[in-house]
Design goal:
Elements: H1 3-16, E1 21-24, H2 32-44, E2 49-52, E3 55-58, E4 61-62, E5 65-66, H3 71-79, E6 84-85, H4 88-93, E7 104-109, E8 119-124, H5 127-130, H6 135-146, H7 157-167, H8 173-182, H9 186-198, H10 211-216, H11 220-223
Parallel strand pairs: 7-8
Antiparallel strand pairs: 1-3, 2-3, 4-5, 6-7
Length: 226
C-alpha cells in the first residue's frame, strides 16, 4: 500500500468521525510512519489538532478555526478508563468549590502518563480500572483523600452530593464502598466511614457497615478517634 493510498484512507477515516472527538494513531492500521504522516498533514491543513505524539483532536470547524477540547476532556482521555480528577479539580468536578486549579491533577489507575501542559497525573490503585470507575466516582475518592482543605462549602455537603449522584446513577455506592475500604490512603478510608455514618443511605444494601472492621486496620491513634 503506497503512502498516497494511506493518506486517502486516513482522510476518509477522519472525515467519517463525529466532531469533538479524540483519535489515536494506534487505532488505525497501516505503517506507523505513513499513518503518522497522514495525520500530521491533516493537522497542518487545519483538519485536526495535535494533542501529543499519536493523539489528535477533531474539533468543530468555526470561522475562528477548530474548537479545542477542554482541559477535563484531555485529562480523562490521556488518563484512560478508571481515571478522574484529583485534588481541587475533584472538588470542582463535584461542585464543592468554585476555584479553577492552575494545574489540573488527574488520578489514573496504574502508571501515570507524562504531564501535558497544565495537566499532571498521579498514580492510584489499578482496581479503579478493573471496576471501570467513572470520573465522578474517582472524584469522590479523591476528595475523601484530600479532605476539607480542597472544598469551599461545609465538609458535610460532600455527603449530600454523593447521595444525589447515587440517586442519579452517576456513582455506584457498592463500588465506592469497596474501593474506599481498599484504599491504601488512611484518610480516604476513615472519611468514607464517617460519610457512611452521616449518610446511611450510602451503605450498599449488599454490604454491612465496616466501621469497626476498618477501624481495626488503623493505628491506635486513629482508632481512638472513634
Amino acid at each position: 500500500m503506497t503512502s498516497v493510498s494511506v493518506s486517502q484512507r486516513i482522510t476518509h477515516y477522519v472525515a467519517a468521525l463525529s466532531e469533538d472527538a479524540f483519535v489515536a494513531v494506534r487505532d488505525v492500521n497501516g505503517s506507523r510512519s505513513a499513518v503518522e504522516s497522514a495525520f500530521s498533514r491533516l493537522a497542518a491543513n487545519g483538519k485536526l489538532t495535535r494533542i501529543r505524539k499519536g493523539i489528535y483532536w477533531k474539533g468543530t470547524i468555526t470561522p475562528l478555526g477548530i474548537s479545542l477540547p477542554s482541559v477535563e476532556k484531555v485529562a480523562l482521555f490521556l488518563g484512560g478508563p478508571g481515571s478522574g480528577p484529583a485534588g481541587v479539580a475533584a472538588a470542582h468536578w463535584l461542585g464543592l468549590t468554585s476555584q479553577i486549579p492552575s494545574t489540573y491533577l488527574t488520578a489514573v489507575p496504574g502508571r501515570a502518563p507524562a504531564p501535558w501542559q497544565q495537566i499532571k497525573f498521579t498514580q492510584r490503585p489499578i482496581g479503579r480500572l478493573l471496576t471501570d470507575m467513572s470520573p465522578s466516582e474517582v472524584a469522590v475518592l479523591e476528595v475523601l483523600r484530600s479532605g476539607p482543605a480542597v472544598v469551599e462549602t461545609d465538609w458535610e455537603q460532600l455527603g449530600a452530593v454523593v447521595v444525589q449522584l447515587a440517586e442519579n446513577e452517576h456513582v455506584r455506592t457498592d463500588v465506592l464502598h469497596d474501593a474506599a475500604n481498599d484504599e491504601p490512603h488512611r484518610g480516604t478510608r476513615t472519611r468514607w466511614i464517617e460519610l457512611c455514618r452521616s449518610q446511611p443511605e450510602l451503605m450498599p444494601k449488599s454490604r454491612t457497615c465496616d466501621y469497626q472492621t476498618t477501624k481495626s486496620r488503623l493505628n491506635p491513634a486513629v482508632r481512638d478517634l472513634g
